[in-house]
Amino acid sequence: MIPADLIQLLRSLKKSAIIVLLMKWAGRPLGEAEVAATLDSSRTTVRTQLNSLCAMGYANRVRFHGGFVLTEQGQNLFGDEVAKFCPLPTTTDLFLLKSKMDSEVIGTGTSKNFPVESERQHAPPEPVDPQIEAALRSAGIMLNARTRLLARMEHITPEYIRAHQRNLYVTRNTRSPGLLVSILESAQPLPDTGERERRDYLGGKYAEFIEH
Is residue 40 part of a domain? Predict the structure, then answer.
């Protein structure tokens, strides 16, 4: 059985895994323009994925214009014998890998090799808790296949979503829905804003003696 923490890791990396591979293969800082050109992707998409990797601790920006590199945590994803399963790719390898990932994301269901996925497309989506859906929409996150899975994760609650949304704005001055989704998927601890301690203090055994 796959451990729960490994499942969370794979889910958090599934959209940006190809960038992690490219950064490992390059062995030097890569800018978002170079990554976008190599993967034939938009700079907006690449920027979101790089920011997500930085938020999860797998990448760092060298300088503002110096590009991005994998952190020690990002390097550890490959283990000690990366050359045995991660040989240096050719341009064709990168193109084929990106095409495969794009086809899986789009999920056309036309391939005969994936009959189960084809059947799922015609099945009605599983319901989402209305309060969780409202919290996601309030944060600018619309429901799709990815966010429906996110909404059904055990650690996801409306309070958890709102807390990370506030913390993202306070600490990074951004309301990026894509970055927030990556943070929520990675099951990071509830941010400590001080509000919880105050609530616990006011609700403690001496609460009746406290004026507020």
Answer: yes
Distance CA 107, CA 205 (A): 55
Is 48 inside a domain boundary?
A: yes
CA distances to 100, 113, 165 from 116, in Å: 17, 9, 35
User: pTM of this prediction?
Assistant: 0.39
Question: 31 and 67 in contact (C-beta within 8 Å)?
Answer: yes
What average pLDDT is seen over the chain?
75
Query: Quick check: is 45 in a domain?
Result: yes
Q: How many CB atoms lie within 10 A of CB 170?
A: 10
Tell me the per-residue pLDDT of 156-196, one tens digit each, with 9 for 90 and over: 999 999 999 999 899 888 888 888 988 998 888 888 765 55
Segments forming the whole domain that contains residue 145: 130-201
In a domain, 206, yes or no: no
Contacts of 51 by beta carbon, 8 Å cutoff, 6+ apart: 176, 178, 179
